[in-house]
Design a protein that fits this description.
single chain; mainly alpha
Length: 456
């Protein structure tokens, strides 16, 4: 019954948001209350999970969101994204979505997914018209989505990739050898297929963008009289200097992750490599770069607008975390474990398909890619030795399925939506569709990997 009640809660929230036009925060809280009471958590237990889930998500991503949004606001005020987009559009043009998907899936998997979307979203919004005036934003949103999560599950040191490899007892080097080409191919092919989908009338700007957010963004911009002199003062700084608030945190986080994998401990690197500290360093660099050129008053105005945006994102993201907590406490994972049991005598292809399906259903139900992958690995790992399939192939099948259909029960969904000014329907059409496509695209690649592993 937990599965049925979870389905009712998720579908109900989507209908309330899209059809009835109820605010996402209210809709998600109604879903939390229904699910908690329907699955026997009781009044107090439901409240505990709602508040506990909210607090847990805030502890994980609250500062990341705040620092990231403020960095983006300060960089935007200096014209950094405008100049960067001009260069990228001139050199890459319509290839920019492929470059973003490829880079996020291969170069930056050591960066937390929350940091990736916070830092990449402003550039995507600015560059969208240069890529495609009609479909630029959804195309870039889809490319970001699949790039982030293909790297997250397939490419070491992505968090889910490391977790899957560890639970399945697959050496990280072996997992990377197979996962890197699968992750990159999945990101690029999915980006191409997603663009074809957009060209067939899939995207409706009038319903898929959050027009209220766009209006608020426009109202928060400075007037044209102030833009010109600020742009002139900012132009005195080289572009690479203005990009340091993004580049420095990325380097710090990546360095910390790489040394951690190499089991090299250094207290300074551990401190600076923490995502919260790294982004705070980036914020300090941005502040110290903007303040001399724009002055105290103008800098304060930029930060105030950034704080307003941060509050909205934090609230809806936290409530998304509340729904995930209620689902987890409802016993959903245990129910799914009982429903699925791997057959030790199954053919190789059936074992791969069943593994993929287990991970996909877990992710759709639970709302966390990493939790779905870890839970699926826990189900499969005890009998993987008797399946007659190389463990790395089963691990890759888990990774593939765990990407499937990231939707409203994930706090990342709401971060993605608000940072890119998408409506709920728009996020379902970009993030959910891109991750679903990616899960399907990567499955045959895993089957090919099984042939390679067998041959080796």
């Amino acid at each position: 019954m937990e599965i049925l009640h979870a389905a009712i809660a998720i579908v109900g929230a989507i209908v309330l948001i899209i059809r009835v036009k109820v605010d996402p925060v209210i809709s998600l809280l109604l879903a939390c209350v229904y699910l908690g009471l329907a699955t026997g958590l009781g009044a107090q237990g439901t409240v505990d999970q709602i508040t506990g889930g909210f607090g847990e998500i805030m502890a994980e991503v609250g500062l990341l969101i705040g620092f990231g949004v403020l960095i983006g606001a300060l960089l935007h005020s200096m014209g950094t994204f405008d100049d960067l987009v001009e260069i990228l559009a001139r050199r890459l043009g319509r290839r920019l979505p492929y470059a973003i998907a490829g880079a996020l899936s291969t170069i930056f998997p050591s960066i937390y997914v929350d940091v990736q979307v916070v830092l990449a979203a402003p550039m995507a919004k600015e560059s969208a018209p240069a890529v495609d005036r009609r479909h630029g934003l959804p195309w870039l949103a889809g490319a970001m989505a699949i790039g982030i999560f293909a790297g997250y599950v397939f490419v070491v040191p992505g968090l889910a990739a490391v977790a899957i490899a560890g639970l399945m007892d697959v050496p990280l080097g072996t997992y990377l050898l197979y996962g890197l080409p699968i992750g990159l191919t999945t990101a690029l092919v999915t980006t191409f297929l997603f663009r074809l989908l957009l060209g067939r009338g899939f995207w409706k700007e009038e319903t898929d963008l959050d027009h209220d957010a766009l209006v608020r963004t426009a109202e928060g911009d400075t007037d044209g009289q102030d833009d010109a002199p600020r742009a002139e003062r900012a132009a005195r700084l080289p572009l690479w200097v203005r990009l340091l608030p993004i580049l420095v945190p990325l380097v710090l986080i990546a360095t910390g992750a790489i040394l951690d994998l190499a089991e090299v401990s250094n207290p300074v690197v551990v401190f600076l490599g923490d995502a919260n500290i790294a982004l705070f360093v980036g914020l300090l660099i941005a502040f110290c770069t903007v303040r001399p050129s724009m002055g105290a008053e103008a800098t304060g105005e930029v930060l105030t607008a950034g704080f307003r945006t941060t509050g909205e994102i934090l609230l809806v993201t936290g409530v998304g975390g509340s729904l995930g907590a209620v689902i987890a406490e409802s016993g959903m994972d245990e129910t799914l474990v009982d429903l699925f049991s791997a057959d030790a005598d199954a053919p190789v292809i059936l074992s791969i398909l069943l593994t993929w399906f287990i991970a996909a259903v877990l992710h759709f139900a639970i709302g966390s890619v990493s939790v779905a992958a870890i839970t699926a690995a826990g189900i499969i790992s005890p009998i993987v030795g008797s399946l007659g399939v190389d463990p790395v192939v089963i691990a890759l099948a888990i990774a593939s399925g765990a990407m499937f259909a990231l939707h409203v029960n994930s706090n990342f969904f709401w971060m993605f939506s608000t940072l890119l000014d998408l409506s709920t329907k728009g996020s379902l059409k970009t993030l959910t569709m891109a991750t679903s496509l990616g899960a399907v695209v990567s499955l045959p690649l895993v089957l090919v990997a099984s042939l390679v592993a067998t041959a080796v």
